[in-house]
Every structure is written in C-alpha cells, then in structure tokens.
Amino acid sequence: MAKVIQPFDPKDVVAHPEAYFRRAYVWQVPVRITHWVSALCVTVLFLTGLYIASPILAPSGEPAHHFVMGRIRQIHFAAGIIFVISFLVRIYWFWAGNNYARSGFPFVWRASWWRDLFRQATDYLRLERGHVHLGHNALGGSAYTFFVIFLGWVQIFTGLALYSETNPAGILNKLFGWVIPLLGNSYRTHMIHHLVAWAFPIFALLHIYIVTYDSTQYGNGLITSIISGYKFYRQGDIRNDEWLS
Ligand code: HEM
Ligand code: HEM
User: Disulfide: which of 14, 88, 177, 184 matches 173 by Cβ 3.0-4.6 Å?
Assistant: First the structure.
C-alpha cells in the first residue's frame, strides 16, 4: 500500500470519513501490565521447568553448597506465584474493566459470536483484511481462553499441589493437595504439569505470528497497542464489535 503524506484537510475528513484512521483507547493499564507480566512469567516458568525436569548442569560438590537446582526451583516458584497474582488481577479486571477487557470471552450462546468466529476463520483462509475489531475477535478470544486461561488453571492447580508436597501439614496442602490423588499420584501430576507446559510455547509461537500478521494486514497499530493501549480504526471496523454488547 502506497504511503502518501498530505496536509490535513478537515473538509476532506467530513467528505470521505472512510479514508481516515481514528484513534481509540482499547487496552487499559491492568490488561497491558498483566499481559507482559504473564508473558514474562510463562517464559521463565517454561525454561526453569525444563531444567527441573532435565538438569543439564552437573556442578561438583554438595548440592547444598552450589545450590543450582535449589535456585532454579526458587525462580520457578517465584515466577509461579507472580503468574498466579497476575492471573487473579486479570480475572478481576474482566468485570472492572472496559468492554475490551471482556471481548475475548467465548459467548457461545450468542449466534453473533459464532458468526464472528466463522468470519474470522474465513478471512484468514482468504488472506484478506476482512473484518477488523477494536477488541479481540472471536477466534483470538477462544485461543486465549483455552491456552492461557484453561491450561493456565491446570498449571496453577497442579503446580501448587506439587509445591504443597514440601509441607504436608501446611495450608497449601489443604487447599491444593486433593489434586494429586485426583490425578492418580505425584508422578502423574508431574507428568500432566510437564505435558501441558508444552502448550505454552506452541501458543506463544502462533500468537506472535498471528498478531504480526494482523498488524500488517489491518495497519491498525495492533502490536504497539499492547504497549500504549491505543488502536487505530476506520469507518466500519468498529461495527464488528457489535456482537460484544
Ligand atoms: C513478543 C511477544 C508478544 C507480543 C508482541 C504480543 C502481542 C499481543 C497483542 C497485540 C495482543 C492483543 C491482540 C488481540 O487483539 O487479541 C495480545 C493479547 C494477548 N496475549 Fe500477547 N503478545 C506477546 C506474547 C505473549 C505471550 C508469551 C503470551 C502468553 C503465553 C501472551 C498472551 C496473550 C493473551 C492472554 C492476550 C489476551 C490479553 C487479554 O485480554 O488480557 N502474549 N498480545
Ligand atoms: C505456564 C506455567 C508453568 C509452566 C510452563 C511450568 C512448567 C514446569 C515444568 C516443565 C516442570 C517439570 C515437571 C517434571 O517433569 O517433573 C515443572 C515443575 C514444577 N512446577 Fe511448574 N510450570 C508452570 C506453572 C507453575 C506454577 C504456577 C507453580 C506453582 C508454584 C509451579 C510449580 C511447580 C513445581 C512445584 C514443580 C515440581 C518441582 C520439583 O519437582 O522439583 N509451576 N513446571
């Protein structure tokens, strides 16, 4: 698309509103902060988790002195707790925030949501600009709900249950200890926590690819929006958020 810079002409804006982009504040501060905190935590959790499962360093001497595994586990648990806090803040903001804090929710009982899901999938297949949303589209929202919310809960419950094993008389064991017998035993809980961990880099790869694709296709500042909060839209784009209300 050719980029021509021309002097601002208010009369032309009134005559051809469809040719101009407007700016809207979409992602509020808690959405942006929890996004980057979770992205960072998930990266740290995945890398430290892989080390816990398969320690590649072989330091000599007493483990209590070099404390390599101990330190990696500490980092994993600290990132785990920060991830849980960020998760809870984001859930709170689902109710407290603007409409776009809720736009990713799968409204499966609304026909308009299913239409949006189908339309978004066909837009991608045709490689067309298609329908542009200010908030999340139905397909993106479903991916966040399954990969980050649902599997995030699985990691939080299994992770806290495994963590609680260090103190069987503690409060954490009372709150999350039941997960271990539910899944069979400690080994199976480790296995599920480990298997589900791989969903996160798969999601991150697809997610970064799709937001880069969308940002280029829509020309709406999507990537910078998750830093600044602002997105750009043209006449017609905003209508596609009607299924939200
Ligand atoms: C360079 C890395 C990343 C970039 C540029 C990026 C960019 C974005 C953008 C632009 C959105 C809004 C998209 C929309 O309209 O739906 C978004 C949403 C989201 N991203 Fe990322 N992202 C990155 C990494 C990650 C990672 C690693 C995760 C988690 C594993 C993640 C999880 C999410 C979630 C859950 C949302 C929905 C936000 C909400 O409603 O709270 N992102 N991201
Ligand atoms: C996206 C989130 C997470 C990912 C990707 C992740 C990844 C992993 C992986 C790959 C392992 C090794 C499992 C094994 O083979 O035994 C592990 C272990 C573990 N994780 Fe996570 N984890 C996450 C969240 C959490 C959370 C929220 C907690 C809660 C504190 C947690 C606590 C633990 C514990 C206690 C272990 C076992 C450590 C050990 O046996 O020494 N994880 N994690």
Answer: 177
What homologous superfamily is domain 31-57+64-235 in, according to CATH?
Transmembrane di-heme cytochromes, Chain C (1.20.950.20)
* Nearest ligand by distance to the CA of 89: 1
Q: 21 with 232: CB under 8 angstroms?
A: yes
Taking alpha carbons only, the member of 107, 103, 130 closest to residue 119 is 130
**Domain coordinates in residue numbering, the chain:** 31-57+64-235
Give, in order, the Cα–Cα distances in Å from 73 to each of 3, 76, 114, 119: 51, 5, 43, 44
Confidence of residue 7 (pLDDT cuts 50, 70, 90): confident
Q: pLDDT tens, 98-128?
A: 999 999 999 999 999 999 999 999 999 999 8
Cβ of 231 less than 6 Å from ligand 1? no
Q: What is the DSSP string of 217-245?
A: HH-S-HHHHHHH-EEEE-TTTGGGGGGG-
The bound ligand whose nearest atom lies closest to the alpha carbon of 149 is 1
> Ligand 1: which atom is nearest the Cα of residue 222?
10
- Reported for 178-183, long-range contacts at CB under 8 A and 24+ positions apart, including other chains, are 183/158
Alpha carbon distance 64, 48 (integer Å): 19
